Amino acid sequence: MSAQTRAHEPYVTGHAAFAARLGSEPAWLEDLRARGLAALEDSGFPSRRREEWRYTNVELVMREPFALTDASAPPVDRAAAQSAVLGDASAPQLVFVDGGYAPELSAPPADSDGVLAESLADVLRDDPARLKGLLGGEVDIKLHPFAALNTAYVSDGAVVTVPRGAAAERPVVLRFLARGGETRSIAHPRVLLIAEPGSRASVVLDFASLDTGTHLTNTVTEVRVGANAELHVVTLQRESDDAVHFSLLRTRQERDSRLRSHVVTCGGALVRNDLEALLADEGADCTLNGLFFGAGARKIDNHTLVDHAVPHGSSRQLYKGVLGDRSRGVFRGRVVVRPDAQKTDATQSNPNLLTSMGAEVDTKPQLEIHADDVKCSHGSTIGQLDPDALFFLRSRGMAEPEAREFLTRGFANEIVEALPVEVLREPVADLLFARPSAVVGDRR
Description:
single chain; alpha/beta; 11-stranded mixed sheet; 10-stranded mixed sheet; 11 helices; 23% helix; globular
């Protein structure tokens, strides 16, 4: 029996105790959890022998099991929660602590904001039929072991609905806080974002730690963008240097819809981000922007899949990596153009900047084209700061550390400035460069 198979067993044997606390629930929800558990039992945790996990060593997860937070744990006080706020503290927001909704820390959007944001646990308790066929409808848990684990333990998270024709002026923030500390805690937030036809909105998913210590955030987000709707999704991962973070974001777009995803990763010891976009109807357009920042010995693995299933779709991917110290980054991006998806227009780019001799990045952009009337391109680069530009700045009186930071900020700025929530741009940029050693590098 492999180490990966043994490592998942505590989550299987502990599931009965978890389910017993939930009480009576609809048959479809129990079946959903059962399918998640079965998929986890069948696959176990992934090893590096799987091509999709070749560069992701899950040893941190296998050492000893993580445990759900005890329901009797004291609540997080408002001052601690406020200290973790990035950007506008007055924005409409739902706050979750160790995966559970904290209404006393939240400020849901008012009716006038045009968005309905709810706790998943509340909806499952009060109106579960509304989520039948939606929750779990877009995720293939047989392909994603940690999504299977999330599905087996799904109980809370967020449901955000943008009604037909609504135009939300203010972004909705979903803030997921992890206590951290000495216990190896685990949380399985589940998020469902629904933009109904003709609507427009922005949603921010913000993951942060309140303390150091090893904890695991295992999140799944399902997104549905209706016809002629536009949805911006900003994902900020800024957990502590001891954290483990697995995420799967799966989107489905209908006719003439627009999706803009912005993923910024600058925390954690081990981070794996999977993003899958399905363009299911003609005229759908998606943009996937990403910025990952490696410091210390951080490992960041980004996998994207854009599935052009029908004609006349367009997609743009731009993922940038800044790797310093002894960090390691991975980008594996796939664009699939199905046989009938003529007139597809797709681009994919992954430039990477190494700021130290100890940093590494592995990049593998891929095009799988099964149609003949398309316009597709991809590319990747790996390099260091331009010595001529560095010399130019130093010759005009700028010290070398400041010159290096100036050039690195310039490299990252394209992604930061594209964030749809303007109030986040400056604090996100400052957060990325909070570790000078990763920016300045070893200068060899």
